[in-house]
Amino acid sequence: MKFTALQIAEILDGDIVGNPDVEVSKLSKIEEGTEGSLTFLANPKYKPYIYSTKASITIVSKTFEAESVISTTLIKVEDAYKSFSKLLEYYNQAKLNKFGIEQPSYVAETVTYGDDVYIGAFTYIGENVKIGNNVKIFPNSFIGDNVKIGDHTVVFAGARIYYDCVIGKNCVINSGVILGADGFGFAPDDKGEYSKVPQTGNVILEDFVDVGAATTIDRATLGSTIIRRGVKLDNQIQIAHNVEIGKNTVIAAQTGVAGSTKIGENCIIGGQVGIAGHIAIGNNVKIQAQSGVGRNVKDNEAIQGSPAFGYAEWNKSYVYFKNLPKIMKEINDIDKKVNGNS
């Protein structure tokens, strides 16, 4: 896709300094700009590069004034960083602007869907699926029976959504995601052998949920595993059966949440955190990376460690953790002097 400086300025409500007809077809960092690329300058640290960049167009804030000759065409806006972000969103939307049902694919006769839907090749869509307006389902995806997908949701290539799951509006399901696989439910018998407990529930994603690549969210044993509005999940996260995650919580990669745990609203959970089952984590909680959480956590706590405890307390304790050999030597030396131990 190619855009002229004039077209970009109209999108961003910006002013052009230079050639309005110059075209760009790719994005670049300002220090790596090449002919035909678009870049931006927001951090003053990178200001020297604007005089050497080969980028055809550079977005700058209106306060910018050139101190020497530049070759790039400028688009002046109120906030260069926000405007570039807006343009990235526009660019992504343009890339996703596909329509129709590609072949080969299987769409059951009982499927209903809205306007401007895209279904990529080699996709399977089961019975009684309901697909909203402007939904994009990319190739090699699987949508099981009775699934509901809300308006403006994107399902990227290779995602798997099992039967009865409900996906809200404006969600993003990235490649390799599995929604609604069986929860890890097994019961031992008197011989010590394990029998599977049927997992009869589903997964519900409310509106504006993002699920990162290769993340798995298990269906509930009974009822629903629920991901509330605005939750953002990174790649390679495991959410077990009957978990509930409160709205606007964000969780970084490789975190695992065991079954039936409830996580509150507006929490921030770092990478590689392990959260035990059947506990409650309050609202506005911060959990540092690689922590192990095995207890209930109150609202507004910040915790770290394994097992995790108060973040400030952990930082103080860490000073002693790393100095334990030295401390033990001092204790032993004192013991020898006081008690005469050899």
Automatic annotation (TrEMBL):
Gene3D superfamilies: Hexapeptide repeat proteins, MurE/MurF, N-terminal domain. It comes from the Bacteria. It catalyses: a UDP-3-O-[(3R)-3-hydroxyacyl]-alpha-D-glucosamine + a (3R)-hydroxyacyl-[ACP] = a UDP-2-N,3-O-bis[(3R)-3-hydroxyacyl]-alpha-D-glucosamine + holo-[ACP] + H(+). Its EC number is 2.3.1.191. Catalyzes the N-acylation of UDP-3-O-acylglucosamine using 3-hydroxyacyl-ACP as the acyl donor. Is involved in the biosynthesis of lipid A, a phosphorylated glycolipid that anchors the lipopolysaccharide to the outer membrane of the cell. Belongs to the transferase hexapeptide repeat family. LpxD subfamily. HAMAP family: LpxD (MF_00523). This is UDP-3-O-acylglucosamine N-acyltransferase. It comes from Gelidibacter salicanalis.
